[in-house]
Amino acid sequence: MSSILLVTSSPRGDESLSSKVAIDLANTLSAKGNGTSVIHRDLGANPIPHLDTVTTSAIRKPAEARNAEEAAAAEYSDKLVDELMAADTVVIATGLINFNIYSTLKSWIDNVARAGLTFRYTENGPIGLASGKKVYVVLSSGGVYSEGPAVGMNHAVPYLKTVLGFMGMTDIEVIYVEGVAFGPEAAQKAIAAAQARSEELALAA
Hints:
Shape: globular
Oligomer: single chain
Strand order of the largest sheet: 2-1-3-6-7
Number of helices: 6
CATH class: Alpha Beta
């Protein structure tokens, strides 16, 4: 059975626009797939700990060389990798904060970007092992960063495309919810545009 991995990262809870659009998209894709299962990782409500000395050491060692603490840390990271690898579709939501993604999302990436699991090194360079997935990125921002004078300050999309592509995920669509700081009317217009784009992509899926 196919599955969708939904990763939201905003700490704003129900007020998060990126989460709202991403959740609606995941549910629409699920319904179109006749009940395709959705696994939701809410990193805002349940943050993944940032890499520490234990986890960093654990994921670099073979299982038999880990102590009990390292084994527990590696098991948690392995579960995140398993969720990603099992998904046919990945929906990622983040706000643009200080011109990049939320640190909670970065921590998820640090746990799933694993040599030998989601990518491997070869004589001809790295090869992504998480290929064949459709990825949707929902990015919300107070200003407009998809075009215009501020586009060069949008480090979130280039970073996500780079790191996801490194793991083999190159089929990526970006949905912007932008300009929401320009007043209630602008915010409603941004949400409507994002929802329309989501529906268009869901129909094309």
